[in-house]
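[job 0412] stage=complex_fold ligand=arginine status=START
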Amino acid sequence: MVLKTLLEERLSHAMEELGIPKDCTPMVAVSARVQNGDYQANGAMAAAKRAGLNPRELAHRILEKVDLDGIVESIEVAGPGFINLRICAKFLGTALSNSTPENSSTRAVQTVVIDYSGPNLAKEMHVGHLRSTIIGDCIARVLEYRGERVIRQNHVGDWGTQFGMLIAELELHLGKGEPANLALDDLEKFYQQAKRHFDEDPQFAEHARAYVVRLQSGDDHCRSLWRQFITISIKHNLDIYQRLNVGLSEEHIKAESAYNEQLAGLLQRLTDQQIAVDDQGAKVIYLDELADKKGRPSAMIVRKSDGGFLYSTTDLAALEYRAQTLNAHRVLYFIDARQSLHMQQVFCAGRRAELVTSGVKLEHHAFGTMMGKDGKPFKTRSGGTVKLADLITESAERAAQLVQSKNPDLNDEDIATIARKVGIGAIKYADLSKTRTQDYVFDWDEMLSFEGNTGPYLQYAVTRVGSLFKRAGLDMRTFAAPARIDQPEERALALALLQFDDVIEQVASECYPHVLCSYLYGLTSAFMTFYEACPVLKKETPSAIQDSRLQLCKLTAEKMSCGLDLLGIEVMPTM
Ligand code: ARG
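[job 0412] stage=complex_fold status=DONE, emitting C-alpha cells
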C-alpha cells in the first residue's frame, strides 16, 4: 500500500468538495522533521492563491472536511498554510500487516523498451560501458517489479568501417591455421594488432577498405568472417553480464546490423517527405527545433556522399521498430551525456517523420563519467582503458581479503562466493547511489567499506536480520506476527517501511536509481536505531513485543533484499 497516495486521495476529495479546481493537488510529502508530523501537505497555499482565499483559512477548511478517521492521530495547520499529519500507531501496525506490493493491477500495463549497455563489439567491454549497463538494468528491474511489460534492447555496435580492418586481420590468422576463438582470445590485443597493420601497411589498409564495401554489399566470404568475429565478441559480453549479475542475454541483442535492410527504404521515405534533403551529395535532416544561438538549424546526416548510412540512420530505424513493431509506450535510452545532441536529433527527426506517434514517450537518461582519484576519466596505472573483466576480478579479490579478515573461519569456497557478491555489490552501489547525471570518483576503499552509504553496509544489514532469526531458532520465511507500533524508533521504522512503494514509483517515472539507494540507506539507519533502542531477543522483552519486533525485523529484511535486488545486488546468509 502506498500511504502517501492514500493521504493524497482523501485530501483531494476534501478539496474537491470545497470547489477547488482538480489540478490543484494536495502535494503530500514525507515531513523533513519528525516534530512536524510524519507527512506534510503543502497544496493549500497554491490552491488558495488560485481561488483568491487566505491560505491558512483554506487549510483549516480542508481539515474540517477531510476524512482521515483511523488513519491520522493528529492533523494541524502550521505556518502559512502547511497541513501536518501524524499517522496513528494502530494504523501503522495494520498497514504493515497488509503490505502487499503495489503493482499495476489497477493501472494499464505499459510496454517500456529499454535501450542499455550497447557496447561496440569491435573491442572488449571496458569501464565506459559500466554505467549504461547497470543503471539501465536497475530501471528495467524496477519497471518489471511495477508490473510493466519491459523489452530490453541491447543496441550493440557490430557494423561500420572498423569491421573491414578486423575481418581482414582475422583472415590473416585463419590463413595461418589459427582457429578463430584462439585468435580472438584477447579482443583488445587483436584490435591493437589490426590497427597497427592498418596504420603501417598500406596494402593491408586497402584490403581492409575493400572488405568494408564487400561486407556491406553482402559478400559471403566477408559475411562469414564477420559473423565469426561477432559471435566470439558477443560471447565475451554475455560472460560479463553474467558476472555482473545483469539481466541481459542473447535474446535482448538487437544489433545495429539488424536494421541494415530497413535503411534504404527509410531514407526513401524521409526524402519523399522532404525531411531529408540533398547537401553536396549527402542526405541531411535540418532541425530548426535544435537551432544554435545564431538560429542555424542543427544538421543530422543520414547518408554520407559515398552512399554509406550512419549511426543516426540506424537509430531512426531502431526508433521506428520500437514504436511500431514493439508497440512501446515509452522508450528509454541509457546513454552517456556526450550523446545528448545525437539523441535529441533522433527524437526530433523521428517525430517529424512520424516514425513515432505523439503519445509515445521518448526519454534519454544521460549520465556522467566515472573518474579516477586524480579527477580524470578512470584509467589503468599506465593510462590504458580498464577492461570490465579485470575490474570484476579485482573487486572479488579485494572483497575476499576483506571478508577473510572479518570472518577468518570461513572456507575458501564460501569466501569466494561471498566476495563475488560483495565485490559486484560494492561497484554497483557506488555507481547507482550517485546522482546519475553527475561524474563520480571511483574509489575502491570507499565503496568496499562496511560503514556508511555503501553496498556492503546494506548487504550486511540483511545478513544481520537473518542471523537474528537463526539465533532465535525461527524460520524467517514462515514467521508472522502482528506489528504493534509503540516506541518512537518503531514508528520511524514502520513509516520508512511503508514508503517503499512510493520510492519505487518515483524511480520508475524519473529513472534516478540514487533515490532508491538513499531510501534503502535511510531504512537501514532507521533499522539500526530501532535495533539499538528496542531489545528484540532480550529475556525481559515480553513475548508479544518480541514477536512484533521480530516482525519489524523481517519486514526490514524483505524490503531491503527486494530493494537491493532491484539494484541488481545480491544478499547472503553470512558475510
Ligand atoms: N554503441 C553505442 C556506443 O558505444 C551505444 C549505443 C546506444 N544506443 C543507441 N540506440 N544509440 O556509443
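The chain has a mean pLDDT of 95.
[job 0412] exit 0
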